[in-house]
């Protein structure tokens, strides 16, 4: 959980540097967030495609691996269950 405040502080420091140098950030915030969401979704496509044939394994992957990776939450404690 410590990683979120650290990421926010580092982002604020980068913004402070941009402000001191009188430049704008490289991408508008909304465009940058949409790009990051695309990266997160895209990296889940390969493992998802590998599991399409096995519906039970696909459901397990989405529930225990993909959703926590996309939402940034820890996996469910029972994620090792078959």
What fraction, in percent, of the residue positions are helical?
over 70%
Low-confidence stretches: none
Note the gap between the termini: 28 Å
Number of strands: 0
SSE order, one letter for each helix or strand: HHH
Number of domains: 1
Taking all Cα atoms into account, the compactness measure Rg is: 18 Å
Overall pLDDT level: 80
Estimated share of beta-strand residues: under 5%
Structural class: mainly alpha
Determine the number of helices (DSSP H or I, runs of at least 4 residues). 3
Query: Which of globular, elongated, flat, extended, rod-shaped describes the shape?
Result: elongated
Task: Report the biggest beta sheet as strand number plus sense, adding barrel if it closes.
Answer: none
